[in-house]
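step: validate -> pass
step: tokenize input -> pass
step: predict -> running
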Amino acid sequence: MNGLEAFDERLGALIGNLSPAARKEMARTIARRLRAGQQQNIKRQQAPDGTPFKPRKAPPVRKKKGRVKREMFARLRTAKYLKAKGTANDAVVEFTGNVQRMARVHHYGLRDRPARGGKEVQYEARPLLGICESNFYSIEDIIIAYLTKKH
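step: predict -> pass
step: emit ->
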């Protein structure tokens, strides 16, 4: 026991006193703020804990000319694929659709076939989603702001 159980119960009771609509709005705000932080981490090519992503494998010696490499996961961080949802009970940031599988492979460093019929490749673990200490502080700020509002 870390002594925070009593605090957690009181905070849960205070949040429970909010109307369901206010809780949903608060959860949506939290989810949006978390998504923005995750997008920034992906843009900076770093894991939620601040460590940089492992670089891509070096290209073969003889490669196609004029090939332009973009940063990793450039489209993955867009709002089309990285969704933020909030309900009265939870706030969720998740990848949607077919990119969920690809994001899971990169997040955990699994094996996958990059092309249909291609050979299997072992990917480096590049954590895409997670919560760091600064996220906890921003969540606290949002909760305090909603608890101090008159609803």
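step: describe -> The radius of gyration is 20 Å.
step: cleanup -> pass
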